[in-house]
Amino acid sequence: AALVLLALAFSFATAYDPSPLQDFCVDLNDTTSAVFVNGKFCKDPKLVKAEDFFFSGLDKVGNTSNKEGSAVNLVNVDKLGGLNTLGISLARIDFAPYGLNPPHTHPRGTELLVVLEGTLNVGFVTSNTDNRLFTKVLNVGDVFVFPIGLIHFQQNIGNTPAVAISGLSSQNPGVITIANAVFGSNPPISTDVLSKAFQIDANLVKYLQSQF
Predict the structure, then answer these.
(1) 186 annotated as a binding-site residue
(2) Predicted structure pTM score
(3) Domain span including residue 103
(4) Which one, out of 106, 122, 148, 160, has a CA that is 20 to 30 A from the CA of 17?
């Protein structure tokens, strides 16, 4: 009995997305419900269609005409209801020449990236206190993994566009872009807090906050 309880506790502790108890649990897409659950409500299996497992559009080039020079097209459970409870999602990442997908983290998913076009410099940083940087230059066909929750980035180091596809181990991995969260929070984090945390002048903090 003790072993059974231990096994159950371990399975719950390591599960980030709801585990399926049937073949599928297509998102009902009920926007009127006031109930919040860790996952989505299931559509009646008898009403499920092939379209519930289908998404079109990853062949389209993303708009990279922004400050970072990158665009992410994430296919998660909100876009593809058939992903519900399956613990997986997908993203296309487009890069302008020398474009950057800035340092960010996925709080609920590990990311596995494969380069389809171009050359990328990628990396992630381990947690405190080591803060060790693992970085690698990737070419077409190369694969790199970013462990769950760790800050990571991808940058196109070529003078031509680049494209990558990422698989993520969650139906809704989430994303926290570090600069946006720190300097673009609403309401803003105290200037005193940020100046002490980053050991920079308060005026520089105010300038950085104004950029968001």
Answers:
(1) no
(2) 0.88
(3) 14-174
(4) 122
